[in-house]
């Protein structure tokens, strides 16, 4: 019996590779690198299902869909549209095009499989072990937080996520900090731990010494120490020591840094820790909650107006267009820098000089992103975050800090935010951090 055929049209090489690798064992998968290539292969390959990114080069997704509808051989092919941002003003444009679902990026595996099963009548399943993996970059270090458990599907997806971040920040030899929180490991997890560590070593270009694991798990420490291939991976339970060797320019004069680091370590690693926070890139299942703006599946019809993540900020003009951004900082220069960075690409930036002013206006706008200084008069950033989350507002937040890199890590984690920028800021840093958070494929 011939296998069903899927055509994937997406500008991201990493995304195409993931879909081809993940679905190749079940389907005959063909890939296209842009709209023109995709339209040609749509005519010749005649797939049973089309998976297409909303934002394409050389031919737009709408042009492909119009041509698809005009051709009687392709008109009835169902479509899954992938997107990084929903633009509800363009919903009606996609009504006639037989779009089954819109899958939001970062991609959620169970939502993808559910959509495939509905479109093709298959019975694909994903491993359901509870697991949350978040990955992000600060100071050219890849921070990875793993909570709840180890899920093989998500561990495999992690290698693509790290590669995506390394491509965005142009990091050749990533240094990786893995934080294991709210997780009880036993020998049953051995094979998944091995796979995780091998992926990390591979992504670190074989340099196991560039990997630190922050955990209170005795089993993890014994597991790593007992295997020759992992002997250069350092397992620690204190954030300060985890950062040693990863941050080269920390300030040794910071008062009580060890005490502060230990307190934060205990908080983020304890069984009561809550992984998550919409300010970071999430690798979740749709049933695991998280930001509504990042839901993996939306009823058709839907669309978006955002670009696939580029390798650097040269693609930011398209990717950042139309964002609604708040900068909350009492420094006028910082306000103007953020305004200038995004103003040239038609993003709407509002500046607030203190936290109270922002909170008073927070409910009036649907923000895509907030840049937030922690140290402000009247109401500081910590209180702003507490009130935002207390109101159920899960807007992504990037912390702005004028302290040293090491202290920034502690302060950001204390605030429950894992994405931060250290002042003085540069436009390219601001744009890359924005792309990391809002324009991810994984």
Explain this structure to me?
The protein is of the alpha/beta class and 442 residues long. The chain folds into 3 domains: 5-120, Rossmann fold; 132-269, STAS domain (Transcription Regulator spoIIAA); 320-428, 3-Layer(aba) Sandwich (Rossmann fold), CATH 3.40.50.2300. It contains 15 helices and 17 strands. It has helices at 13-23, 35-45, 61-70, 109-120, 152-169, 190-203, 218-225, 239-243, 257-269, 316-319, 332-343, 355-362, 381-390, 405-414, 427-438; strands spanning 5-9, 28-32, 49-53, 79-83, 99-104, 132-138, 141-147, 175-181, 211-214, 234-236, 281-283, 297-299, 324-328, 348-352, 369-373, 397-401, 420-422. The chain has a 6-stranded mixed sheet, with helices on both faces. Strands 10-9-8-7-6-11 form a 6-stranded mixed sheet, sandwiched between helices. β1, α1 and β2 form a beta-alpha-beta unit. α2 runs parallel beside α3 and α12 (355-362) packs parallel to α13 (381-390). It is globular, with a radius of gyration of 22 Å. Mean pLDDT is 82; it is low at 248-255, 271-282 and 290-319.
């Amino acid at each position: 019996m011939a296998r069903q055929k899927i055509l994937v049209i997406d500008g991201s090489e990493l995304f195409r590779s993931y879909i081809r690798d993940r679905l190749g064992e079940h389907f005959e998968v063909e890939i296209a690198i842009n709209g023109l290539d995709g339209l040609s292969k749509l005519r010749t390959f005649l797939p049973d299902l089309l998976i297409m990114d909303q934002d394409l080069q050389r031919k737009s997704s709408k042009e492909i869909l119009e041509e698809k509808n005009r051709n009687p051989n392709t008109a009835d092919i169902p479509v899954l549209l992938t997107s990084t941002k929903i633009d509800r003003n363009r919903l009606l444009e996609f009504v006639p095009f037989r779009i089954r679902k819109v899958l939001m990026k970062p991609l959620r595996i169970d939502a993808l499989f559910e959509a495939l099963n509905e479109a093709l009548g298959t019975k694909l399943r994903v491993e359901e072990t509870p697991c949350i993996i978040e990955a992000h970059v600060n100071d050219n270090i890849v921070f990875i937080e793993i909570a709840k458990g180890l899920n093989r599907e998500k561990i495999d997806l992690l290698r693509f996520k790290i590669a995506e971040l390394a491509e965005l920040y142009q990091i050749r030899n990533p240094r990786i900090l893995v934080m294991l929180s709210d997780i009880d490991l036993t020998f049953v997890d051995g094979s998944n731990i091995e796979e995780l560590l091998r992926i990390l070593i591979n992504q670190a270009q074989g340099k196991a010494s560039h990997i630190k694991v922050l955990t209170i798990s005795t089993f993890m420490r014994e597991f790593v120490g007992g295997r020759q291939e992992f002997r250069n991976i350092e397992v620690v339970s204190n954030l300060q020591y985890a950062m040693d060797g990863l941050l080269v320019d920390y300030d040794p004069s910071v008062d009580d840094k060890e005490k502060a680091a230990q307190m934060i370590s205990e908080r983020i690693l304890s069984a009561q820790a809550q992984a998550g926070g919409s300010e970071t890139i999430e690798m979740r299942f749709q049933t695991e909650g998280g930001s509504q703006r990042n839901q993996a599946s939306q009823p058709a019809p839907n669309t978006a107006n955002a670009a696939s993540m580029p390798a650097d900020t040269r693609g930011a003009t398209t990717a950042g267009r139309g964002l609604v951004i708040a900068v909350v900082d009492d420094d006028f220069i910082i306000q103007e820098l953020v305004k200038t960075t995004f103003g040239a690409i038609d993003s709407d930036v509002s500046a607030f000089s203190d936290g109270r002013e922002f909170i008073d206006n927070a409910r009036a706008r649907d923000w895509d992103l907030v840049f937030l200084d922690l140290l402000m008069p009247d109401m500081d950033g910590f209180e702003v975050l507490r009130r935002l989350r207390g109101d159920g507002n899960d807007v992504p937040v990037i912390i702005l800090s004028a302290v040293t890199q090491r202290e920034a890590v502690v302060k950001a984690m204390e605030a429950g935010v894992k994405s931060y920028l250290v002042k003085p800021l540069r436009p390219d840093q601001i744009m890359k951090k924005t792309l990391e958070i809002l324009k991810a494929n994984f």
